[in-house]
């Protein structure tokens, strides 16, 4: 299973239920990586999407504890157990965990690959992703050339869980 996330130099991912920064090339990378795949996200993350609608061209699985929550063109699950049962019908390499914070933390143990956009800047943040550089179970297996967006520098990294 995969996860995909943009982090700052302190592994921060958000502030007040919003992304820290929007980088067009990162959005393009996200789109290319997840198109035609299964994306797993929480209800609050869904609410941040344009019109609060599921992502087109992907199978959207929304995790929420709200038993009455509905979303057009999405599969709704209400627990980790229900989510894991739903995911059994998909190939592991086709599944991408896309946030938010609680979904990342819940699903990280099930993931073998992490697609990380690492931004060389420290933002004010209230939400953080676990620091994979400090986790001996993870190693960087691919990295891109340094990219620049205005005065921001960032790289695309792939971490894989050590076998």
Structure write-up:
With about 160 residues, the chain is of the alpha/beta class. It has a single domain (about 1-160), classed as Dihydrofolate Reductase, subunit A (3-Layer(aba) Sandwich), CATH 3.40.430. About 20% of the residues lie in helices and about 35% in strands. The protein is built from 4 helices and 12 strands; from the N terminus they run βββαβαββαβαβββββ. It has helices at about 25-35, 45, 80-85, 100-105, and strands at about 1-5, 10-15, 20, 40, 60-65, 75, 95-100, 115-120, 125-130, 140-145, 145-150, 150-160. Strands 1, 4, 5, 6, 7, 8, 10, 11 and 12 form a 9-stranded mixed β-sheet that branches. Strands 3-2-9 form a 3-stranded antiparallel β-sheet, with no helix packed on it. It is globular, with a radius of gyration of 15 Å. The model has no long low-confidence stretch (mean pLDDT about 95).
CATH topology: Dihydrofolate Reductase, subunit A
Largest sheet: 9 strands, mixed
Instruction: Please identify, by name, the CATH architecture.
Output: 3-Layer(aba) Sandwich
Count up the domains. Answer: 1
Using the coordinates above, name the CATH class. Answer: Alpha Beta
SS strand fraction: 35-45%
Q: Element order, helices and strands?
A: EEEHEHEEHEHEEEEE
- So what's the overall shape? globular
Q: State Rg.
A: 15 Å
Termini separation (Å)? 14 Å
Q: Helical content, roughly?
A: 10-25%
Helical element count? 4
Total DSSP E strands: 12
Low-confidence stretches: none
Structural class: alpha/beta
CATH superfamily: Dihydrofolate Reductase, subunit A
Mean pLDDT across all amino acids: 97
């Amino acid at each position: 299973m995969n996860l995909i996330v943009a982090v700052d130099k302190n592994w921060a991912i958000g502030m007040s239920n919003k992304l820290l920064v929007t980088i067009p090339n990162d959005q393009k990378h996200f789109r290319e990586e997840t198109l035609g795949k299964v994306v797993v996200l929480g209800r609050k993350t869904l609410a941040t999407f344009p019109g609060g609608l599921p992502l087109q061209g992907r199978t959207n699985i929304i995790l929420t504890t709200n038993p009455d929550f509905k979303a057009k063109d999405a599969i709704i699950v209400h627990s980790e157990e229900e989510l894991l049962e739903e995911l059994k019908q998909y190939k592991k390499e086709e599944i991408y965990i896309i946030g938010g914070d609680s979904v990342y933390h819940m699903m990280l143990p099930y993931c073998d690959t992490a697609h990380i956009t690492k931004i060389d800047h420290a933002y004010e943040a209230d939400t953080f992703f676990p620091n994979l550089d400090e986790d001996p179970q993870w190693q960087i297996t691919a990295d891109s050339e340094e990219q620049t967006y205005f005065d921001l520098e960032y790289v695309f990294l792939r971490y894989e869980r050590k076998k």
